[in-house]
Design brief:
By secondary structure, this protein is mainly beta. The protein is built from two helices and 24 strands. It has a single domain, classed as Jelly Rolls. Strands 1, 13, 14, 17, 18, 19, 20, 21 and 22 form a nine-stranded antiparallel sheet that branches. It has a seven-stranded antiparallel sheet with strand order 2-3-4-11-6-9-12, with no helix packed on it. Strands 5-10-7-8 form a four-stranded antiparallel sheet, with no helix packed on it.
Length: 303
């Protein structure tokens, strides 16, 4: 077994999207190979309705999948295919844009005016860029939650973990998407297949992750003597942690516990041509997508 090294830790940066939604972006619109197959991750936590109520009006997507996970408040959605619905607290939507879709997402706060959720973009390989669009809307009660003897809780949104399989059927990235809570003072190790790229996003509490810049055996030996080697403290205030290659992540929860997302997926390793919400493989494909938008042929007829 080998601990994944910590390649980088950084705070999500405030930005604005849609019609004026204030959110924090952990990564996106920079190096698409950074966390391949994932392209972008946004945290839309907000306690001021004026900063999110205008939402994300009609906009296109092609060539990607978007994964929306709501913790507080609701998100109303609709699309050019006639689909519509509402995501509530704990619900997940996995949208495969594929060949193209126009949709809108309109967040609403809870009874206290609070909104919190995440959106992750996953790339599609060239063979699936023009696949038919589809939705997977999953309600909170259908997502398995595993509670370990030490109080650790893991919500399995996508993929398999500790004998449970999440209800979302990922298409291309063979993803694993976990929402994890580790109680105060508890130390826990989580296995991740070595072929996946992985990151953690800490959004509540604090924790320390074991780094792998020392051999694993040395780390264990030091731990027996009550010392920690190469432990990095992480604030829970919207912190992204990028991991290198290995097959496990070890976390020591802080005095108030820690809650974080642990997300991993198989790299696609293909060229990326990216313009806003459209992600293709070549500039010609990108130009064609923009031409389709202008010509009204962006949405492909159902067969």
């Amino acid at each position: 077994m080998s601990i994944r090294p910590i390649l980088e830790q950084r705070a999500a940066q405030p930005t604005m999207e849609g019609a004026g939604v204030h959110l924090h972006r952990a990564f996106g619109f920079q190096d698409p190979s950074e966390l391949d197959p994932f392209l972008l991750f946004d945290d839309f936590r907000n306690e001021h309705p004026a900063d999110f109520m205008k939402g994300f009006p009609w906009h296109p997507h092609r060539g990607i999948e978007t994964i929306t996970y709501v913790l507080s408040g609701t998100v109303d959605h609709g699309d050019s295919l006639g689909n519509q619905g509402t995501l509530g607290a704990g619900d997940v939507q996995w949208m495969t844009a594929g060949s193209g879709i126009l949709h809108q997402e309109m967040p609403k706060g809870n009874a206290n005016g609070q909104m919190h959720g995440f959106q992750l973009w996953a790339n599609l390989p060239s063979s699936l860029k023009m696949t038919a669009p589809r939705y997977q809307d999953v309600k909170a009660p259908d997502i398995p939650v595993i509670t370990d003897d030490d109080g650790t809780q893991v919500k399995v949104i996508v993929g398999s973990f500790w004998g449970k399989t999440g209800p979302v059927d990922g298409i291309a990235a063979d993803p694993q998407y976990l929402d994890i809570f580790v109680p105060a003072g508890v130390k826990k190790t989580f296995k991740i297949d070595t072929y996946r790229k992985a990151f953690a996003y800490i959004f509540r509490g604090s924790a320390a992750f074991a780094d792998a810049s020392q051999p694993h055996g040395v780390l264990l030996e030091k731990e027996v003597m009550g010392e920690e080697v190469n432990i990095r403290d992480m604030s829970g205030n919207r912190t992204l942690v990028k991991f290198g290659t290995g097959d496990e992540v070890t976390v020591q929860a802080g005095p108030e516990g820690v809650r974080f997302l642990l997300i991993s997926g198989a790299p696609i390793q293909e060229p990326v041509a990216w313009h806003g919400p459209i992600v293709m493989n070549t500039q010609d494909e990108l130009r064609q997508a923009i031409k389709d938008l202008r010509n009204g042929t962006f949405i492909k007829p159902a067969h």
